[in-house]
Write a structure and sequence with these properties.
single chain, 781 residues, 22-stranded antiparallel beta barrel, five-stranded mixed beta sheet
Length: 781
């Protein structure tokens, strides 16, 4: 069983293709080369194992070496992600020869190894929950420039990045949850949470695409394992540790709107005394700048003479080092830094006009090991974001103020799992996270400084039992988690107030009361496996989410009015029910489908408190985040993948969802609004994705299609007075990538995003960049 686990673990290692001559042989060891059975090219990072504790991996040239063989023959197992594994018997006479291993490609990754859904290593077909795996090959073949863009091709994912690379943020949700908020779907980077406690957001721009090996998407409420932010599911972005002895790769790009960029990666590993002990290191850095374009609508341009292009500059670096002690222990440290400078398209007097700036620093220390029959994973993490924004505008008077928001999150997560008999795998652990925000708006056209501060810490314990019966055909997973969250040190206050901010005075709360919440989040899932053809499963799970700090302690301007802090805001809950099936009628065809229904209680919404406020340009409504409604979300999603042959792969998926408010509870007797029966905003009823990839020695081509259905503009589902529509219209986009490798070291790529120049809009009716073309040349040493 242990051997099977180790083989599956190395299935996660991606395979790079290159060519190199075969090597010579020594008498005491078996040496050889792993190649693609159809193309003859080298397969790197293939794992070769001949016992439970002994094995190696092929290098970038496909070469491997096994020493310490005993007996007249030995059976070895060769496996690599994207290829069919191979068992072969090697006799003694082969020790003095070059052994050539031919692996056949297997593009349909129906039963790959994943970790996110259970926090333990399991194949997809052994995990009774809907899991979508975005493979290394699909990532490499796709015409995307940021990691969140790849997610829009997964079934049922609601993706929003209206300005492409110029967007200050992207939002990815699923299972009918609103596309306005990232905080209801948890995002992990190598298992570390990167949703910020302040707003629940994720800075997708800081993740370097070149580092991403694969992405695991777990659907449905995941709070039984991950707590808050996991109400709609979990997305785990998994990066690639250095697998080669020494490598250097670089690329240059040039695109639409005078967009230019460069990337450099380097790394390697070195054996320490024993070949089983290795030290590895890697560095990845990227830079991009662009003149940008005007994002505002034609009406806004006519009404505002100060509109300019929204430009960008960004830079990021990731460095990691680790120590691998045999097959049982690994220690790793990762450091991230990211900085950007994005213009938001308006300039009155300042040199750069209105801009946003993110300075982010991250540090992770991780230990993964095995002692006896116990597997352990423990991580310390810290993420700091200094968010800066310059605001200037001219209405009746000129106003200029700067925003600085220091957002800090740090914590400790730990998991232990152990076999209990032949049929049980027990997993338990704890999570601790502390998040804080220290922010101010500093006015330069008056004396005001507006402060908001707050902190929240969450401690959680969880336990899970994976039960396997009937030779693995029947599986059950039962788990429960308890979270305790506390909000403290909250404050909203104004220093040196002037008439500029006098409308905020009555909402000052210098010392907000401490609040604590606790919640149990259970999960139960059952599955029956139909031999090797597929499986059916059923699942119940509960989600829990306390509020974000921005809603608890910040008052300020928002779109359409003014919002006030609500330190008494209570958590929201979600009960999720799901049925699913996977079927593989023959080796090259895969189909899956899921039905889901979720009912939410005490959902948090911005609602009017029945009052208005004059912010120096007319009366505007006052909003507050409140637990005002019960909601329901229902839908279905399906996907089919077909490998026509080793060169041509096809896929298509479809998702239908309906999300509506069941009950609306007014927070003020003057509130005349009733949202009961209304549908969520920013949730498309229909989402479709499809694509084809053709790999050929002459040239490679990838064509991807995405359809986003119509979405309601406002909570009332009525015609908007400004936009004169009740729904944002549906739209389709086609993306193309063409690439060619040459001279063994170079690759030329052409990306055409939104090839037919479709115009679509965000919630402020700002327009997308349309067709975006990028040419890239990359090379490796």
């Amino acid at each position: 069983m242990m051997q099977l686990k180790l083989v599956k673990t190395f299935f996660l290692v991606s395979c790079l293709l290159s060519g190199i001559p075969a090597i010579t042989q020594t008498a005491s060891c078996l040496k050889g080369r792993v190649i693609h059975a159809e193309t003859g090219l080298a397969v790197s990072s293939a794992h070769i194992r001949f016992s439970e504790s002994s094995g190696t991996a092929s290098d970038s040239q496909g070469i491997f070496e096994l020493c310490g063989l005993r007996g007249s023959a030995v059976r070895i197992t060769i496996s690599c992600l994207g290829f069919t594994s191979l068992d072969t018997l090697v006799k003694t006479e082969s020790y003095g020869k070059i052994l050539i291993i031919k692996l056949r490609p297997s593009q349909i990754l129906m039963d790959e190894l994943v970790v996110t859904a259970t926090r333990t290593d399991n194949s997809i077909l052994e995990t009774p929950v809907r899991v979508n795996l975005i493979s290394p090959k699909f990532i490499a073949n796709s015409p995307v420039r940021t990691v969140d863009e790849i997610l829009k091709y997964a079934p049922g994912v609601n993706w929003s990045r209206p300005f492409g690379v110029f967007s200050t943020k992207a939002i990815v949700t699923m299972r009918g949850l609103s596309g306005k908020e990232q905080g209801r779907v948890m995002v992990l980077l190598d298992g570390i949470p990167i949703n910020k406690s302040d707003g629940g957001t994720v800075d997708w721009n800081m993740i370097d695409m070149e580092m991403v090996r694969k992405v695991e998407i777990t659907k449905g409420a995941g709070s039984a394992l991950y707590g808050g932010n996991a109400m709609g599911g979990v997305i785990n972005i998994i990066t690639q540790p250095p697998a080669e002895k020494l490598y250097t790769r670089a690329s240059l790009e040039f695109g639409t709107f005078n967009t230019m960029g460069a990337k450099v990666m380097a790394g390697g590993n070195k054996a320490l005394k024993s070949p089983a002990n290795k030290m590895y290191w890697g560095v990845s850095t990227f830079y991009r700048q662009s003149d940008g374009y005007i994002t505002q609508s034609e009406a806004d341009r006519l009404a505002n003479p100060y509109i300019i292009k929204s430009n960008l500059m960004e830079f990021g670096i990731n460095a990691r080092t680790g120590l691998k002690l045999g097959e049982k222990h690994r220690i790793e440290a990762v450091i991230n830094y990211y900085n950007d400078h994005r213009g938001t398209g308006e300039k009155v007097h300042l040199e750069d006009g209105n801009v946003t700036d993110h300075d982010s620093y991250g540090l992770t220390l991780n230990y993964k090991g095995k002692i006896g029959n116990m597997n352990m994973n423990s991580s310390l993490f810290s993420l700091t974001e200094n968010y800066k924004k310059v605001n200037e505008y001219l209405k009746d008077d000129y106003t200029w103020y700067d925003v600085l928001s220091v957002r800090r999150d740090f914590g400790w997560i730990s998991t232990v799992s152990q076999k209990a008999g032949k049929s049980n795998l027990l997993t338990a652990g704890f999570d601790y996270k502390n998040g804080s925000v220290d922010a101010y708006d500093k006015y330069f056209t008056s004396t005001d400084i507006v402060f908001n501060e707050g902190r929240m810490h969450t401690f959680a314990v969880y336990a899970q039992d994976e039960i396997s019966l009937m030779d693995g055909r029947f599986r059950m997973i039962a788990g429960i988690r308890y979270d305790r969250a506390t909000f403290y040190d909250g404050s909203f206050r104004i220093e040196n107030p002037s008439p500029e901010t006098s409308f905020m005075n009555e909402y000052e709360v210098p010392d907000m009361p401490e609040q604590s919440w606790g919640a149990l989040s259970p999960r139960l899932s059952l599955q029956y496996k139909l031999k090797e053809k597929g499986r059916v499963y059923a699942m119940y799970s509960r989600g829990f989410r306390p509020s974000v700090l921005d809603d608890l302690c910040r008052s300020g301007r928002i779109k359409g009015g003014f919002k006030i802090a609500n330190p008494a805001l209570q958590p929201e809950y979600l009960d999720n029910f799901e049925l699913g099936a996977d079927w593989k009628p023959f080796n090259r065809l895969q189909w899956n489908a899921s039905l889901f229904y979720s009912k939410g209680k005490d959902f948090q919404y911005y609602v009017s408190n029945g009052q208005t406020i004059d912010m120096d340009f007319g009366e505007r409504p006052i909003f507050i985040r409140a637990n005002i409604s019960d909601v329901e979300m229902a839908g279905a999603e399906t996907e089919i993948r077909l490998e026509v042959n080793s060169q041509l792969q096809l896929f298509a998926n479809y998702c239908y969802s309906k999300s509506r408010i069941l009950e609306y509870r007014r927070i003020d007797q003057n509130d005349t609004i009733d949202l009961a029966g209304k549908y969520f905003t920013d949730v498309p009823e229909h989402i479709i994705s499809a694509g084809a990839t053709w790999n050929h020695p002459f040239i490679n081509l990838s064509l991807l299609y995405h359809y986003n259905g119509a979405m309601y503009v406002n909570d009332h589902n009525t015609v908007d007075e400004v936009l004169l529509i009740s729904q944002y219209p549906a739209y389709s986009t086609f993306d193309i990538k063409v690439w060619k490798e040459f001279l063994g070291k170079f690759k030329a790529s052409l990306f055409i995003q939104n090839a037919f120049n479709t115009k679509y809009y965000d919630s402020k009716y700002a327009v997308c960049p349309g067709r975006f073309i990028t040419a890239e040349i990359s090379f490796k040493l």
